[in-house]
Specification:
single chain; mainly alpha; 6 helices; elongated
């Protein structure tokens, strides 16, 4: 197996594990707090608030892995020239190739990731809004990972036969 395929397989497996963790955390949070309002969010116990932070960090980590490594590796495996490509350029190209469905989703996920990483609102209403939008967006992020995986398998880029 080529080194490209080995690296791509490792990135795909890592993204899959991160997506599973994100799905698990989302399931737990939806059961505990399906929709947050300011009062509910500020009254979470330590364990529940820790799960919320872990959820946010999981989104950030999965987005970064996809944007900085996985998407670029997919394009390189396809022989694409990506010098100077930003994450959005890579995502647009993957959309054109049929690997992902909608480039605007990636823009929205990137904006969410940046808000999670760089803004820490003290206002409870803003925290509740961020929580609710993050629950919904996490579904889009795990769908991107699934779309990429299906594309990789269909194109036999993980070292197997195309399906």
């Amino acid at each position: 197996m080529k080194l490209e395929a080995v690296l791509l397989r490792e990135l795909d497996e890592t993204a899959g594990k991160l997506a599973q963790r994100l799905d698990l955390l989302r399931g737990i949070l939806v059961a505990e707090l399906p929709k947050a309002d300011a009062k509910k969010l500020v009254n979470l116990d330590f364990d529940a608030s820790t799960r919320v932070v872990a959820f946010y960090k999981s989104i950030e980590q999965l987005f970064d892995l996809c944007a900085r490594q996985l998407m670029r590796a997919v394009l390189l495996a396809l022989g694409e020239k990506i010098d100077g490509f930003a994450a959005f350029d890579a995502y647009n190209r993957l959309e054109t190739l049929g690997a992902v469905k909608n480039a605007q989703i990636w823009v929205d996920l990137g904006n969410l990731r940046n808000r999670l990483a760089h803004s820490h609102p003290l206002n409870a209403e803003k925290q509740a809004t961020a929580y609710n939008s993050t629950l919904a967006a996490s579904i889009d992020l795990t769908a991107v990972v699934a779309d990429l995986r299906h594309f990789l398998i269909a194109r036999a880029l993980l070292g197997g036969n195309p399906q």
